[in-house]
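Minimal example, chain plus FE2/S2 (inorganic) cluster.
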Amino acid sequence: MHPGELIPALQRIQSERGFLPPQALHQVARALGIPLSQVVGVATFYAQFSLKPKGQHVVRVCLGTACHVRGGDKVFEELLRFLSVGPEGTSPYQEVAVEPVRCLGACALAPVVVSIDGKYYGGMTPAKARDLVQHVLRGESVPPGSP
Ligand code: FES
């Protein structure tokens, strides 16, 4: 592997395992011939990577300025309440992790929610976000945009 393959390699592991286990980081460092600290540095820099296991589904709620002023915080609070998410960010059933993020680069759609498969859903209200998560938990596919 070439050092330029670091991010794609981490993305592959993140996609397959749902997080980046320490052993996988060691293996990537060895395969690329780069220091482990460099791998960890990249893994902790980007929000798309997680070093801890998460729920089966990850819902990211944008709390950046454009989303905050249009109710992003209310969407976030409603999902925490609806899913009984604890301080660790995962619901009791380990099905859904809810994470706040700072700007998803889709401010025109504010407020925005990103579901497990990275699909963006814009124009969220607390009720729409609740419906979206219910669809996802039932295994129903929801096309990106507004549910
Ligand atoms: S502030 Fe929410 S997408 Fe940019």
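The domain at 3-45 is CATH 1.10.10.1590 (Arc Repressor Mutant, subunit A). Residues 62, 64-67, 103-104, 106-107, 110, 112 surround FE2/S2 (inorganic) cluster (CB under 6 Å).
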